[in-house]
Amino acid sequence: MSRWAVVLAGGVGSRFWPLSTPVRPKQLLPLVTDRPLLRDAFERLTPIVDPAQILVLTHAALERALAEVLPELPRENIVVEPRPAGTAAALVWAALDIERREGKEATMICIHADWSIGDEKKFRSTLVRAEEIAVETRTLVTVGIIPTRPDTGFGYIQPVPGSAAAPARVKRFVEKPDRAGAVAMVKDGYLWNSGIFVWRVGDFLAEARTHAKELSAALGVEPRDSAEAFFHSVRTPVSVDVGVLERSTRVTVLPGEFGWDDIGTWSALQRVRAQDGAGNVTKGDVYVREGADNIVHSEAGTVVMYGVNNLVVVTRDGLTLVTTSERAADLKTLLESLPQSLRSPT
Question: What is the reported pTM?
Fold first, then answer.
C-alpha cells in the first residue's frame, strides 16, 4: 500500500484582510506560529508521509510562493488548478494523478492548509487509523471532530447511533446551523465536519463517477493528463461534501479529538494563540492597557490601545483595519465596498 497526502491550499482568505491578499493569502501567513500555516500543515504530515508523496493543490498565482515555503516538495507535486472548480474537482484530479503514479490501491489523506492542531501526535495517529478503516471497509472515511462548544461556523455530521468514540456510517451532513441548531446537535452527539478525508484512490474515484454529475464531462476528458481540459470541463463547481459524500452511502465517520480548529476569521486566533491575563492576543509591537479580549496584529509600527475591549486591529504597510471581533467575520462585505487599491494591497 502506498500512502499519499493532499493539501488544499488555494483559498484567498479574505476574512484575514488586510494581512491576507490574493498574492499573499492566509495559508502563507504566520497566524498561529511563527511559520506560515502551510508550512505547519506540511510538517504535521511528514512524519507519516514522504514529501515525495504529498501533493499541494493551489492556483497559478501562488505556485512560486508555495515552492519557496516548501523547498523540499518536488515541483511537480504543486498541482495548479487552471480555474476554480470546487473541492470535488480538485480532489478528483489529485486522485487521478495518484492513480497514474501508484494505482488504485494507493491511499489518499486529504487536509486543508489553514488549520491549527493542538496535539499533532494524536492527529497523525487518527489519520493512520482512518486509513486502516478505509482499507478494511472500502468506504470513504471522514474525521468528525468531537465538539467543544456549539459553533455556528462549522458544518456538522450525524453518525448512525452507536458508540460515541467508535467509527460509524454517516447518517447525514448538515450545513452551518443557527445557534439553537448547533446547541441541539452538540447535545445529540453530532460531530464537527472537519474536512479531513481518507480513502483508497479507486474507491473515491468510483464514488465520484457514480455521484458527482457535475464532473461527468471532466471525467470523460482524454487524455487525462491535461489539467486545463479537465478543470474547464467541470460544468458546475461543487464541493466534495455536496458532490460526493452527501450523495454516497459508503461514508464512514471516525470521531477525532486532537485540538483541531479552523483558522477562518481573526476571532479564531483567540482560541489558538496565547492570551495575556485580560484575554488579549497580540503579535508585533503592541501595548494594551485597561483593555480586554482584543486581537491585535502589527506588521509595521507600534499599536497602543487604551480602555477598549473586543476589537480587532491589524496594521501593515501604512494600512490599518479597526473593527469589532463580531464584525471581523464579515470582512468580505467590507471588501466589496472598498476601492480595488485597498482590497489588494501589495
Answer: 0.91
